[in-house]
């Protein structure tokens, strides 16, 4: 960017500083501004307000996050008595210097109506803690002195902006249950004022806090109890659409408090919480297990429905109830469990929950009891038309949003192709392979195609302990899984007369016994999760149409098909589907052809090694090369609900080989 005005540059730098501290602002919360001069398209000097764009995160603030608005136009809006959110947004939008710039914050007029050059508005934890109880006004005066105005809860918008402007001659404003506003002509001084006020509030709270040491007693679940619980919760919370569950331990101390339920009720302490988490977090029982935890979710849903019924009169036309499932669950002894379509979303909710509940803890420790803003006001946020509009204009979720899959052999060849395809469709993945080099390369390719960061398990999948670890990784990182793709495999050449027992056994171990172990443990876990699942076996054209000199391989793959059929029969009652894919002659990224196999197969077919791809292509009916992407697309189909009526079947992805037609 060329020629960024000094005031804007100072604003961006100050915002990055503030954004780096989540106890000041989380995920797009809070906003900052500066006023300055620009030269407009006709060469006139004009005064503008640069204010943070709606939803922009200050952590990585850049100049384009701060649209410029003609200040004069904004100030003339002060003449109105009342403006609805929609009217205000419309009028504020008309003041944009560049109509195509980012939509300015809903709190733009708060910044416009206060005259100072630099303004910070943060949703600081300690400021919320000062005000989330009955004696908020007194506490603010004691903590910050008399120089700060105290404004009772008013939802962000025109009314709050206009009301706050009368306090321009004071040091700053504390917005109850919301945050802090300070200002100065100098950017650094403005930042210092923010930090000063927040530090004073923290000190004050610390001076009041009774040490809660005696209050801890909740015990957490054991490792096995935790995985069983996660599976049951994910099953319960994924009935309508698939979710991942993210564990966060930052609230562990808080989750052990005896007064955890009161603390959760002290609830919505910030606008960010109300927007993202909705009214409350659910609290799971001590020593939580599936039996005592599922009823907690049912109760939460009932409560949400009642809250919706009680407040729905204020719902704008054309909108219905949000998904009533809890997004944040507090698990005694562990911390928070959050749900979302990805781990990123879960992490965002966990960040907000961490601050909200820490604030509630502070309030209870310092003031004994909390005061919340009430369901009707929370409902106003929960169903804020501005936000509903954002939701309705959101792009359709990706095919595999919230889905979790395990892919073995993901460091090369078909496994890598499958991992890439699933990742580009929004899946959360656990990728397994013998070494981590190939996996790292797969991860790079996933990152390049904007997929979610996968989890790795490096190890030998013929070992039962590694198989268990692999599936547990899916449960601990994502709450469970929806499918497993068994793609790890090795080629085993030699005629029966020359094949050694060792080589034979190795082929069976990698291609068949490992699949048995994965099938076994996947089925055990999927049954606990209770929402079905899909097992995909990457077999081979050779399973139906074997060739000389490749017996060890062909037998193991034929065994894999039989294993798949048994899994389909035994898993059916739990909606666990099992299907196989028979590919042929996949060469891209594949390790299968290394170690002399390419030369050996070429010799068997009477062609040169470098002619092998073309030979295979000439052999099939469609005369095509078959790639890992082709196998990946079929895998994606078998993992998805598109194939929900298909189990126990084999799909050939081989370009058409008559001798290998499934039968
Ligand atoms: Zn705010």
Task: Describe the 3D structure.
The protein is an alpha/beta fold. It is built from 24 helices and 18 strands. The chain has a seven-stranded mixed beta sheet. The chain has a seven-stranded parallel beta sheet with strand order 14-13-12-15-16-17-18, with helices on both faces. Strand 6 and strand 7 form a beta hairpin. The longest helix is centred in the last third of the chain and has 29 residues, at 501-529. The radius of gyration is 30 Å and the shape is elongated. It starts with 5 loop residues before the first helix and ends in a 10-residue tail after the last strand. The mean pLDDT is 92. Residues 30, 107, 121, 123, 156, 178-179, 271 line the site of zinc ion.
């Amino acid at each position: 960017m060329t020629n960024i005005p000094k005031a804007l540059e100072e604003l961006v730098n100050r915002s990055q500083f503030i954004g780096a501290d989540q106890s000041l602002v989380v995920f797009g919360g809070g906003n900052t501004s500066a006023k300055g001069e620009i030269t407009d398209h006709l060469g006139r000097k004009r005064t503008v307000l640069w204010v943070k764009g709606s939803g922009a995160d200050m952590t990585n603030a850049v100049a384009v996050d701060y649209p410029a608005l003609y200040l004069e136009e904004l100030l003339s809006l002060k003449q109105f008595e009342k403006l609805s959110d929609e009217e205000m947004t419309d009028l504020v939008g008309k003041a944009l210097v560049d109509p195509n710039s980012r939509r300015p914050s809903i709190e733009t007029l708060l910044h416009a109506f206060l005259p100072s050059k630099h303004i910070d508005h943060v949703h600081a934890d300690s400021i919320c803690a000062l005000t989330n109880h009955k004696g908020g006004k007194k506490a603010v005066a004691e903590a910050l002195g008399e120089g700060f105005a105290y404004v009772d809860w008013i939802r962000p918008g025109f009314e709050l902006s206009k009301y706050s402007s009368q306090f321009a001659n004071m040091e700053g404003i504390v917005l109850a249950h919301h945050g802090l506003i300070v200002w100065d002509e100098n950017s650094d001084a403005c930042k210092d004022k923010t930090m000063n006020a927040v530090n004073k509030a923290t000190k004050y709270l610390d001076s009041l806090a009774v040490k809660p040491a005696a209050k801890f007693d909740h015990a957490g679940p054991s490792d096995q109890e935790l995985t069983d619980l996660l599976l049951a919760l994910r099953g319960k919370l994924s009935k309508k659409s698939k979710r991942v569950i993210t564990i966060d331990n930052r609230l562990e101390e808080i989750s052990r408090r005896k007064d955890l339920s009161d603390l959760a009720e002290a609830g919505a302490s910030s606008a960010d919480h109300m927007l993202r988490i909705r009214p409350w977090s659910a609290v799971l029982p001590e020593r939580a297990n599936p039996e005592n935890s599922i009823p907690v979710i049912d109760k939460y849903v009932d409560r949400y429905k009642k809250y919706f019924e009680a407040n729905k009169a204020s719902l704008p036309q054309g909108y219905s109830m949000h998904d009533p499932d809890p997004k944040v669950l507090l698990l005694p002894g562990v911390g928070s469990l959050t749900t979302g379509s990805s781990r990123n979303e879960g992490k965002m909710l966990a960040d907000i929950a961490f601050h909200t509940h820490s604030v509630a803890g502070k309030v209870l420790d310092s003031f004994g009891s909390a005061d919340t803003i009430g369901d009707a006001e929370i409902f106003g946020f929960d169903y804020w038309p501005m936000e509903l509009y954002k939701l309705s204009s959101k792009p359709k979720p990706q095919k595999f949003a919230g889905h979790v899959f395990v892919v073995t052999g993901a460091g090369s060849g078909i496994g890598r192709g499958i991992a890439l395809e699933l990742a580009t469709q929004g899946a959360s993945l656990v990728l397994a392979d013998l070494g981590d080099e190939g996996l790292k390369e797969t991860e790079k390719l996933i990152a390049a195609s904007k997929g979610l960061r996968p989890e790795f398990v490096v190890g030998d999948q013929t070992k039962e302990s590694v198989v268990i670890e692999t599936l547990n990784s899916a449960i601990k990182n994502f709450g469970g899984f929806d499918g497993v793709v068994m793609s790890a495999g090795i080629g085993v050449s030699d005629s029966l007369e020359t094949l050694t027992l060792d080589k034979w056994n190795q082929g069976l171990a990698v291609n068949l016994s490992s699949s048995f172990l994965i099938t076994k443990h996947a089925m055990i876990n999927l049954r606990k999760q209770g929402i079905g699942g899909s097992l995909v076996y990457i077999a081979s054209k050779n399973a139906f149409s074997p060739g000389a000199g490749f017996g060890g391989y062909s037998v193991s793959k034929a065994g894999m098909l039989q294993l798949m059929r048994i899994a389909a029969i035994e898993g059916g009652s739990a909606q666990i589907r099992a299907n196989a894919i028979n590919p042929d002659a996949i060469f891209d990224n594949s390790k299968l052809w290394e170690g002399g196999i390419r030369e050996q197969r070429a010799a068997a077919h009477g062609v040169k090694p470098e002619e092998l791809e073309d030979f295979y292509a000439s052999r099939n009916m469609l005369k095509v090369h078959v790639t890992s992407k082709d196998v990946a697309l079929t895998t994606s189909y078998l993992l998805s609900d598109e194939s929900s009526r298909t189990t126990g079947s084999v799909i050939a992805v081989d370009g058409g080989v008559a001798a290998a037609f499934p039968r």
